[in-house]
Amino acid sequence: ERKQLNRLRREPSRTIDGVDIRLYANAESRDDVAEAHALGAAGIGLYRTEFLFLQRNEVPDEDEQFRTYRDVVLGMTGRTVTIRTLDLGADKADRTGLVLRDEPNPALGLRGVRLSLARPGLLDDQLRALLRASGYGPLRILVPMISSREEIRAVRTRMNRLAAELRAEGHEIADHIPLGAMIEVPAAAIALPGFIADLDFLSIGTNDLVQYVLAVDRNNEALGEMYSPLHPAVVRLIRDVIRLAQRKGKPVAVCGEIAGDARFVPMLLAMGLTELSLHPVTLLEVRRTIRACDLQALKARAPSLLKARGRLEIERWMAAAAPDLA
Ligand code: PEP
Ligand code: MG
Question: How far is the CA of 310 from the centre of ligand 2 (A)?
Fold first, then answer.
């Protein structure tokens, strides 16, 4: 079984009817990047930078961040690398003193882009490091927890100003650095028509989107099965985001855990998704499933998926759409 999967390292992630699906990797370390490269990932779709900031007492400075981001870019040898700005919040235990303690609702607190905008020095150091790394290969910047166009505009304004400064200082910066948003706060998904023009690309963070749409804590085991992407509200929202992005010609991926779970692949393909970002551990399994999917047939089933009235109906849809892996 493992051996069979290993043979897929050099095979394309192509459906039976010949459509290429871009499989990007989620990464948070050097090892993840090396693994993603070896497995033939299309690039890095989500590099989580929080891990640079955890388990230490001081914030990494611009140079340290630059070296880390540059090495991710170099490690992918010309494939696109998507690095996410800091997504720290009270749910991730830092010792650097950046994060507010004792927030009553950390998931609804000063986290992600909110924290970055509240600490401009922090954001500037990270953006400068990222911009400098863009001189070494294709790099995109992804911003977490966006809920309004003001936030993405504020980041873009900083980014443009810093890029001009760095060029004046003699640094080589890419001419165009795509800036995208995580779509993981329901407000961003719902208000997307009003600010998609401000985005160069989108990445749907289903881990948080599910939590916020359903008001179900993603880490609270007492809620058990309630935390599920198979709620019709979640399915419809994901489909709407994909459709709008495609109508506007913006690249869109799903980077939450469901992208790395082969059971969800037919559903995501039926909704028109052509980019997934997932942990390298499951990349080959997902590739195998994609290679067994008939995209035209899945798309023909999409209307019944969107008509499903509850989780059970969606589960039945998934069972009927599951490809034969024999
Ligand atoms: C998500 O929310 O789906 C996501 C990919 O980000 P994280 O799990 O880091 O919050
Ligand atoms: Mg998230």
Answer: 25
Question: Which tokens go with 268?
Answer: 């995501």
Ligand 1, atom 6: nearest CA belongs to which residue?
205
Q: Ligand 1 within 6 A of 207 CB?
A: yes
Q: How many residues does the chain have?
A: 326
As given in the structure block, the two tokens for residue 137 are 């290969």
Do 217 and 223 touch, CB atoms closer than 8 A?
Answer: yes
How far is 255 from 251, CA to CA, in rounded Å?
13
Residue 48 beta carbon below 6 angstroms from any ligand 1 atom: yes
Angle between helical axes of 62-75 and 30-38 (0-180°, round to 10):
20
Model pLDDT for residues 24-57, shown as the tens digit of each residue: 999 999 999 999 999 999 999 999 999 999 888 8
* Residue that is written with structure tokens 């008509």 in the block: 307
Q: Is 19 exposed, middle or buried (0-12, 13-18, 19+ CB in 10 A)?
A: middle
CB 256 near ligand 1, within 6 Å: yes
Tokens of 302: 């999409």
- Reading the block at residue 153, the tokens are 């505009």
Please give the single-letter amino acid code of residue 96: T
The interface predicted TM-score of the complex, written ipTM, equals 0.99
Which residue, 137, 138, 103, 98, is CA-closest to 121? 98
